Amino acid sequence: MRGMIIDYCGVLDGTDEEQARWRNLLVEARAGGVALAVLSNDPGGPGADPIRKLKDDGLVDAVNLSGEIGHEKPSIEAFDIAAASIELPARDCVFVDDSIENIHAAVSHGMVGVFYQQFDRAVVEIAGLLGLEGEF
Asked: Structure pTM?
């Protein structure tokens, strides 16, 4: 897998400890050549600044907000726009979300889905899919 697309609410916006662990994982993934994007059903506007900060801080390559791209998960168009934002086809991306409906839609579209419920569980699968080693 050459890319990872991650939901924000319910995944990247956890406790301070989880956010720090995600930062470590994202830094390692980018260092390993993995393209990273956020895909959120957020409406956009100033309230989305914490999501945009992930790109501003260099943790992800792209931020895709449904209110700005005109499509919401679980639509195929939302997945395709997010994948295109990191210059990859959807089939080359891992998709991480806390909604099983969104995971099913992504998998049906050819992506590899990781159903996020807890960082410790998800990181094992993500690290394996992306070929990452280390403590996150």
From this structure: 0.96
Residue pLDDT, tens place only, 67-113: 999 999 999 999 999 999 999 999 999 999 999 999 999 999 999 99
Q: Please count the residues of the chain.
A: 136
The domain spans of the chain are 6-32+50-130
Topology of 6-32+50-130 in CATH?
Answer: Rossmann fold (3.40.50)
Q: Report how far residue 28's alpha carbon sits from residue 22's, in angstroms, rounded to the nearest whole number.
A: 10
pLDDT at 106: 98
Q: What is the C-alpha separation between 47 and 77, in angstroms, rounded?
A: 23
Element (H, E) at 27: helix 16-31
Q: CA nearest 121: which of 51, 18, 23?
A: 18
